[in-house]
Amino acid sequence: MSEQTMNIMGVVGAGTIGMGVAHLFAQAGVNTVLIDRYDVQLEAARAQIRQNARMYALVQKNLADADVVVGHLTFSTQLSDIAGVDFVIENITENVEVKTAVHREIDAIVRSDVPVAANTSAIPITRIAGFGKHPERVIGMHFMNPPPIMPMVEIIRGTHSSKSALGAAEAAVTRAGKQSITVNDSPGFVTNRVMMLMVNEAMFLVHEGVAGVQEVDRLFKTCFGHKMGPLETADLIGLDTVKLSLDILYDEFNDPKYRPCPLLKRLVYAGHTGRKVGRGFHVYWSNRKEANHVE
Predict the structure, then answer these.
(1) Phi, psi of 97 (to 5 degrees)
(2) pLDDT score of 3
């Protein structure tokens, strides 16, 4: 598949990243089918994409307006509606068993020449490719949050990934107006293998009483020029996703350095999973950050 032949994109999973990926390609003028099993999630995605498109257009004047973006989107609860797409990006939860079932369904629906990308934070792409009959068409595409405005996509080459599938992924990213770097397969790849260690260690500093949340984030922003501190970054990713990623890294490497911080577990068990629910290591109200609540 080349940039010219990608007429329809299929995006499976309408969570935070999935709706962002669908928004990204619709924003670039690609007709995109967004799939989720729940109507309520699709309606929430539609409203959020419209709201985000308006906000992004205020910041970048060359971006399509909300009506144009939503006009390129089709929302469906039927996975069979991806039958005619030219490229598929799966974005469901970081759970191997759930991904197994979905990839087997995708494999049975789309044409054998259609590239299938797994958008995962940590699961090895070679492991995911084994779920279907065409492992050569499976690649990894790790989108950063929020996908419509982040400039880079990490593409992952699995053991069986073909040159044509990788080329199609690179062409898709280029068409969306973004950059890409292709790396070899490994749990967590490059970005999350490093990032998860950093944010987890930052959590341990708070857990051990070495410094507070605000102090940790401010040090990284001031000393290293980071736009967000590690704990703000974890909140943006979603603390539940961070925990799942660390669990996968711990399982794949059998290395205790990836053990999730007890404070992270406590926040996830409490449902305080970050920006998406208004509370994580920081508290968010009407997009305004209040005082640090983690003790």
Answers:
(1) -65, -45
(2) 43
Q: Amino acid identity, residue 87?
A: F
Architecture of the domain delimited by 3-184: 3-Layer(aba) Sandwich (3.40)
Identify whether the C-beta of residue 231 lies closer than 8 Å to the C-beta of residue 202: yes
- Choice among 142, 226, 272, 293 that is catalytic: 142
Classified as helix, coil or strand, 142 is strand
pTM: 0.90
- Model confidence at 70, pLDDT cuts 50, 70, 90, reads very high
Q: How far apart are CA 22 and CA 118, in angstroms?
A: 14
Largest CA distance in the chain: 55
CATH number of 193-289, picked from 3.90.1150.10, 1.10.1040.10, 1.10.1790.10, 2.30.30.60: 1.10.1040.10
142 is catalytic: yes
